[in-house]
Amino acid sequence: MTLELRALTLTPHGGAPLFPALNLSVPPGMIYTVMGPSGVGKSTLLDAIGGHLAPQFRLQGEIFLDGLNVGNLPAEARRIGLMFQEALLFPHLSVGENLAFGLTPALRGRSARRQAIEAALDRAGLSGFFDRDPATLSGGQRARAALMRTLLARPRALLLDEPFSRLDAGLRSEIRHFAFEHARAEGLPTLLVTHDESDAQAAGGPVHLLA
Amino acid sequence: MKRAGRGLRAAVLAVILVGFALPIAAGAGLTLAAALGHLPALGQAGPTLAPLRELIGLPGFGTSLALTLFTGIGSTLLALLAALGLLARFPAVLRMMPPLLATPHAALALGLAFLLAPSGWIARVIALPMGWQVPPPFATVNDAQGLALLFGLAVKEMPFLLLMLAAAQARLPMAQIMAAGRSLGYSAGAVWLKLVLPQLYPLVRLPVFITLAYALSVVDMAMILGPGQPPTLAVVLTRGFTDPDPAMILPASAGAVLLVLLIAAVIGVWWLAERGMARAGRRWIMRGGRGRRLNLALPAALGQGLLLAGVSALLLIAVWAFAFRWSFPDLWPEGLTLRGWMWGSWARPLVTTLVLALATTTLALVLAVAWLEGEDRGQMPRARWAEGLLLSPLLLPQIGFLFGLNGLFLQLGLQRLPAVFWAQMLFVFPYVLLALSDPWRSIDQRQIRAAAALGAGPGRRLFRVKLPLLAAPLLAAAALGIAVSTAQFLPTLFMGAGRVPTLATEAVALASGADRRAAAVSGLLLAGLPALAYALALGLPALMFRNRRAMRAG
Predict the structure, then answer these.
(1) Which of B20, B268, B281, B419 makes the best surface tag, with the fewest CB within 10 Å?
(2) In what side-by-side order are the strands of the sheet with A3-12?
(3) Where are the alpha helices (DSSP H) in B414-500?
(4) Which residues of A touch B (CB under 8 A)?
């Protein structure tokens, strides 16, 4: 699984392209960092790759995942996981139900699904949290639950949109470590957008500067 | 998916054009034709001004016109003044507004009649110290001057204006404005009148015009509280349209067109008066008086009076519905009884009202969700023109197109109940869509993206994420739909031709009768149905999401 961008540009309606044509290739398990000042279009780039681009932008170029052009697929068919600044757990579902929402439908049977979710909760240090209200979780617990929800969908690539910027310093390195470790273990090509040098250093991969 | 979304929206749009715009346009057109003497069903061909001449020749026409203007403009001014006073001095009363707003006009009017009538509760309070043994001999409801109607309309419209004003005020930086003004030495009342009001009023101009148009064309409340000989113009027209002599349709249609023009003229004059007020206000501000003795105590007291009257009216309905014997000048009935409920004559109107309310609200919700979801899927911006089209049945006086609409439905061979259902939909759907569209558009779009990134397609996103997130607004929109449907009087009267009795038509019919208890039973059910719907809309989300803190906060 490799994520490749070929001559990708994003142009707002009636404006100039946000950045020069982008070419990059992210092999499995690599965490590729994209940096740049705010407003340069980092989040828009992730929206485009994930299939969530707002209609006022025009996308040119190609997005390949595993050798397949996914640029014309709807978001739900791309299987590209997305993590935001906030965990965005669905507030009407319990923590376990949130994970179940993510868990791939390929896994069948009530007890098998429940087991998979409990195992994921264990790995996130959230054992026994199945019935908890997400609003009662701490920031770090929420971030770990959201990552587990994303991984249970068995994505083929991972996009991280400054997912650590709302966390305080101690928690930040812990969650970062947790996310990177899981991304590498699952062999996911990962694209990290940040404006924090320490994130890029921890990622340990190549860094591209958008300007 | 984008194309499917456009298809969905095109389908909803087609339903709205065929189901809403065309019938209203045809209804207004047929009414206009009849106003000009063109009514093939009666063998009449126009155009001629004979219907207008006949209308003007009706006994008491001039008085009707004057009464309409006096009650319509007077009640709007009174309600606006009272709402401004309450907002400035007692914003805490805002929490009482939704239940009063949900009370149908007919129910409130009935309660106010119990309060204000010569043998009403106020007269009984006065009778005690004065030693009256019989009710005073002058009319205090249905008075020839229309004062009871003016008061009743003000009681009913004040909550609407207050809620609109509060919503507008929330958009102003109130704390900063007050601090800036008071630090320059202006009194709180002066800051409010000189700085807040000029910014606030333009934001509520449309609600004020809606109130004005409504007050000038109201029928149910005017039948219960207004003068009888002659009544206001809208009641004259209703009598004409429902007269056993079908020839009366012609002058009534001319009157309907005249009423629409009258409303437009009054709004025009109101708008000119606004500009005059604004000019005078600017001169007043220029003089720089600090207004140390200026306060809004009087309008606020007026607001409290209207509020008290409204609440008392509702309580009186409840007591009357269970009163055993309650003769003048007793303040409380001799006993309580269920006798009024035993005949069961309320059962059929209740069932009809319930069926209509649930059916219209369900269809309106489905259409509204399809409309908004089509917008999302087609990635289309909100269509202001379509929303404007939907608002037209709310702005156009009902009497201006209901007769023509009835003619159209008769030609289509529609049965009475479906015709009433369709006519009610014209008013239920716009309100439901209006109530739902802002919460819908303020869903956190990242939640939807998160769902899509987890592989959820459009259907799963709608049913598993959007609709559950919107549970509370959906229920609130449903409660509003039920309140609107329950309150419909004129569409039910016209389309049902008296054969589809609902609680609203029963309450109006019984209001003029001798049996106060029977009227109160209908009135209590009429007021109770929307109140119950609102209670459920508030209570259910709290129950459904008792373990979901973030769902209860918003």
Answers:
(1) B268
(2) A22-26, A3-12, A57-65, A68-69
(3) 416-441, 445-453, 458-460, 467-469, 471-487, 490-496
(4) 47, 50-52, 55, 74-77, 79-82, 84, 86, 88, 90-94, 101-102, 104, 133-136, 149-150, 153, 155, 159
Which pTM does this prediction carry?
A: 0.89
A75/chain B closest Cα distance in angstroms: 6
ipTM for the whole complex: 0.89
Q: Which two tokens stand for residue B422?
A: 């369709």
Q: With a cut of 60, say whether residue B1 has pLDDT above it.
A: no
CA distances (Å), B553 to each of A133, A136, A145, in order? 13, 13, 22
- Is residue B554 pLDDT above 60, yes or no? no
CA distance B249 to chain A (A): 53
Q: Do domains B1-36+333-554 and B62-320 have the same CATH topology?
A: yes
Q: Which residues of A touch B379 (CB under 8 A)?
A: 55
- What CATH superfamily is the domain B1-36+333-554? MetI-like (1.10.3720.10)
Give the mean pLDDT per block of 10 residues along chain A (211 residues). Answer: 94 91 94 89 92 90 94 92 90 94 91 95 95 94 94 94 85 92 95 91 92 76
Q: Which helix (H) or strand (E) holds B332?
A: none
Task: For residue B551, give the nearest of A76, A77, A92 by CB distance.
Answer: A92
What is the per-residue pLDDT across B384-426, written as a single tens digit (0 to 9) for each? 777 777 777 777 888 888 988 988 998 899 999 999 999 999 9
Which long-range contacts does A103-107 make (Cβ < 8 Å, 24+ apart)? Answer: A103/A152, A103/A153, A104/A152, A104/A153, A104/A154, A104/B455, A106/A154
Task: Find, in chain A, the residue whose alpha carbon is nearest to that of B545.
Answer: A92
When the pLDDT of each residue in chain B is averaged and rounded to a whole number, the result is 90
CA of A160 to nearest chain B CA: how many angstroms apart? Answer: 12
Residue B448 to chain A, least CA–CA distance (Å): 9
Extents of the domains making up chain B: 1-36+333-554, 62-320
Which residue of chain B has the CA closest to A151? B454
pLDDT bucket at B2, cuts 50 / 70 / 90: low
- Partners of B452 on chain A (C-beta within 8 Å) are 50-52, 74-76
Q: Which of B444, B457, B551 sits opposite A76 (nearest CB)?
A: B457
The fourth-level CATH superfamily of domain B62-320 is MetI-like (1.10.3720.10)
Q: Does B453 contact A80 at a Cβ distance shorter than 8 Å?
A: yes
